Amino acid sequence: MDYKYIEQLLERYWQCETTPEEENVLRAFFAQPDVPANLARYKALFVYEQQQAADGLGEDFDERLCQLAGVDKEKETKPTVVRAKRLSFAARLQPLYRAVAILAVVLVIGNGVQYVFDSRKPVAEWDYNPDNYQDSYNNPKEAYETLNDGIEELKDVLSSSADSAKLDSEADVEAAVSEPNNNVRP
């Protein structure tokens, strides 16, 4: 018997040029019990769908699956109701608060490190040249009174401080305060 037509259909099948009707012809041919030996190697490919359709899942499939999962199908279980949690506005912003706190800590540490390692700090130098100074008062009496008030405040601070040096006598302080200042210009 010549199976030239089947071989041509197989060639077209491998090139994906067959129609669904021609594929049904191939399935019907390979479903027969007597298939030539040179075409027997293709039989499993075309009979596979029919074998799988016949197998099916079976009546006890659900029971076997429940048994493997550890679920008792006969026991009625109530479905668990899961309710959504209501979050307050503050709870929603909590991750933002954490991020802001971390950012604040980083900025504070960064500013501290920058302050410590800042090499552009101006060096305070004393200017001993009296020509650079200007009088801040036009009236010498007013200047003297301001100076006297400042010395009185200094005396109060020094007398109240426990760590300050003790003065020999109040007379020396009074004498220093009552002397006119020779450096004040009229």
List keywords for this structure.
186 residues; mainly alpha; elongated
Describe this structure in words.
The protein is mostly helical. 54% of the residues lie in helices and 0% in strands. It is built from 8 helices and no strands. It has helices at residues 4-14, 20-30, 43-55, 61-69, 89-92, 94-116, 140-160, 170-178. The radius of gyration is 53 Å and the shape is elongated.
Report a brief summary of the structure.
This protein is mainly α. The protein has helices spanning 4-14, 20-30, 43-55, 61-69, 89-92, 94-116, 140-160, 170-178. Helix 1 (4-14) crosses helix 2 (20-30).
Helix content: 40-55%
What is the terminal separation in angstroms? 143 Å
Shape: elongated
User: What count of helical segments does DSSP give?
Assistant: 8
Number-wise, the strands total: 0
Structural class: mainly alpha
* Low-confidence regions: none
The largest β sheet comes out as: none
| Gyration radius, in Å | 53 Å
Mean pLDDT: 79
Order of helices and strands: HHHHHHHH
- What percentage of the residues does DSSP assign to strands (E)? under 5%
